[in-house]
Amino acid sequence: MAGKGTNPIPGRPDGAPSELSQDISQWRVGERKRLIGLRLAMSADERASKTRAIAAGLDRLIGSPQGRIVSLYWPFRGEPDLREWSTKIIEAGGQIALPVVIAKAQPLEFRLWAPGEPLERGVWNILVPSSGRVVEPDVVVAPVVGFDAANYRLGYGGGFYDRTLAAMTKRPFKVGVGYAGARLATIHPHAQDIAMDAIVTDERGSHEH
Ligand SMILES: Nc1nc2c(c(=O)[nH]1)N(C=O)[C@@H](CNc1ccc(C(=O)N[C@@H](CCC(=O)O)C(=O)O)cc1)CN2
Ligand SMILES: Nc1ncnc2c1ncn2[C@@H]1O[C@H](COP(=O)(O)OP(=O)(O)OP(=O)(O)O)[C@@H](O)[C@H]1O
């Protein structure tokens, strides 16, 4: 099965899953690179049209955002750009929060933000709200690098969302968002990986509940 463009877990001639965590973390590194490469290779038009489909999927899944805080993200490395959708959430009576990296290996903080409000460069130069109140979102929309059939999410490898979700006192509704091409059979989840309640992609399918 180790065809062109695949990244078999090493240690097995057939690429079958090995339980060696070192092999799995190497496999994750390779898959992150491959999947980020795939989405960066898409045209801006293709990303925009897939992003519109993702936004429609989020609307169907989440329903009315009235009185709810939805955490989004400031897009980078070809992630779906949902900033236009964030305006719709606010117009419909919801609020938007953005994640802030406080430090490596620490949970994220979420700060309220609305389009037009000031942002500043945080850790790794990521833009974060300068002044919004720190909140716990009702809905966490987390960008995925990859995702699997059990709704586990592969991110950039910082473990930020897993730590954040584990530390939250509220139990938010957790939605992973990404392109359909980011689907994997399994991400070989670690014990501390937290599955999403749903994954929304540009393809309508069984991941929506
Ligand atoms: N748009 C967006 N914002 C987000 C996230 C995200 O996934 N997407 N995050 C979701 O977690 C947090 C940021 N997570 C990040 C994790 C790793 C790297 C990164 O560049 N890591 C380097 C290695 C850095 C180092 O260890 O020195 C790398 O991958 O090369 C960047 C952001 C919060 N904000
Ligand atoms: N709740 C947690 N407590 C302690 N360590 C954790 C926790 N969650 C994740 N980690 C550690 O963080 C590291 C990266 O985790 P993982 O590969 O799952 O990141 P990711 O989901 O791809 O990244 P991100 O969530 O930042 O997008 C791993 O070494 C993992 O053990």
From TrEMBL:
Cofactor(s) needed for function: Mg(2+)
Q: Which controlled-vocabulary keywords does the entry list?
A: ATP-binding, Magnesium, Metal-binding, Nucleotide-binding
Q: Which residues form a coiled coil?
A: none
Annotated region (Disordered) at: 1-22
Identify the EC number(s): 6.3.3.2
Q: Per the record, what are the reactions this protein catalyses?
A: (6S)-5-formyl-5,6,7,8-tetrahydrofolate + ATP = (6R)-5,10-methenyltetrahydrofolate + ADP + phosphate
InterPro entries according to UniProt: FTHF_cligase, FTHF_cligase-like_sf, NagB/RpiA_transferase-like
Query: Pfam families from the xrefs?
Result: 5-FTHF_cyc-lig (PF01812)
The UniProt entry's sequence similarity note says: Belongs to the 5-formyltetrahydrofolate cyclo-ligase family.
Kindly provide the name given to this protein in its UniProt entry: 5-formyltetrahydrofolate cyclo-ligase
